[in-house]
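Purpose: get a first structural picture of the assembly so the mutagenesis plan has something to point at.
Setup: two entries, given in the order below. No constraints added.
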Amino acid sequence: MSISVKNLSKHYDKQKAVDAISFEAKPGRILGFLGPNGAGKSTTMRMLTGYLEPTSGTAEVFGKSIVSQAIEAKKHIGYLPENTPLYADMYVKEFLSFVGQTYKTDNLAVRIDEVIKMVGLTPEQHKKIGMLSKGYRQRVGLAQAIIHDPEVLILDEPTSGLDPNQLVDIRQLIKSLGAAKTVVISTHIMQEVEAICDDIIIICKGKIVANNSLEGLKKAHQQQSLEDIFRKLTA
Amino acid sequence: MYAVFKRELFSFLSSMVAYITIAIFLLVSGLLLWFFPDTSILDYGYAELDGFFSLVPYLFMFLIPAVTMRSFAEERREGTFELLITRPIQIWQITVAKYLASLVLVLFALIPTLIYYYSVSKLGFPEGNIDSGSVIGSYIGLFLLGAAFTSIGIFSSALTKNQVIAFVICAALCAFSFLGFDYTSQIASFQPIESAIANLGINQHYTAISRGVLDTRDLIYFITFSVLFLLITKLIIGGKR
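Result (structure tokens, whole complex):
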């Protein structure tokens, strides 16, 4: 298992943002993390990537605990945070080279060119990040997540704010990355889930309400549309 | 750690922040040293830099907060802090990298003032008649003072998302740590421990080094001071998760 989460909780005072959730994610499959706003999706992802410290429970990425072996675990993770924060004052290549250096990536210059091609940044590669449109910023966000060729990719709403053409490109990219890696993405868009996800976890008020494969989930709910299943489980 | 340091330094140098603060620092120190009659060396009549070295700490109280205020506050506000902290880097490495980048900038502000030393030594009679030992000591003192103020700045920036608040807190803490202990020690009821309190302040140690006597105790004081603030910074950054 490349991600294994057991009874993971995050409490803010008395509010339970994430309440003892457990799940696993396998290589070669894309796990869709669904839930209403404020359900705890981002909080869970932030705990997995080491940004937040769990209140209790354990999580392992690639066999490394995210608390006691945080540095080791982080080396295996590529992470795109929600809203794609980037250093607006840096140039695209400069930024990717900074990120690559923090992972001590080998052959960085070659790898940067490779990644720029993969995410389709070639026409904008000499610009400052602050000058880029939303779609290209998103691509820079994805590029920095995969620069060190991580085994695990955690993408928090990677397609929010993209136009339909960009949406197709980015989904295609995520799907191709998912062939060899463990990918966890969070999203609100049901068509997206149907298009790219293999497994689905629906989370509501900090608790997991469904954890199944896409086909399994549909079978369990008599072939209802995913939207109806989502509304039934989280309403 | 080197990657973060490099990024910080480049971001200073590619924005106007560095140039404007350094330019204003040099302008003000130049005006005070050469032009304004009250503090001018030309009116003073002695070829020495003591006036300059007693002025710079006050300029640093504004220059250094301006340099350091953005270091953590901006990252927090922009969300890039999340990007930084999810890299395989220890929090203390991030803290030290940001500290060193700001300190290098302070050093950049100090280096051009060496020209004052050269000019004043030319003005001496006979030419070159200047107490070099005391000047070297004063520069070391100034650098250590800058290092201490920078650690306060990094600490203040970690406290808040708001750069203005970070600036104000840093300026106030710098002023207090420089002068506050001296003033506090003057309070009548503290008379028995007057020198102990004054010794906690930066001013005592700065003045001691400025005389050209580099005492290990002063050195240890400055190192402890910076390490202490950086340690608290690390704890704040780590604890806010």
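Residues 7 and 21 of chain A are 5 Å apart (CA to CA).
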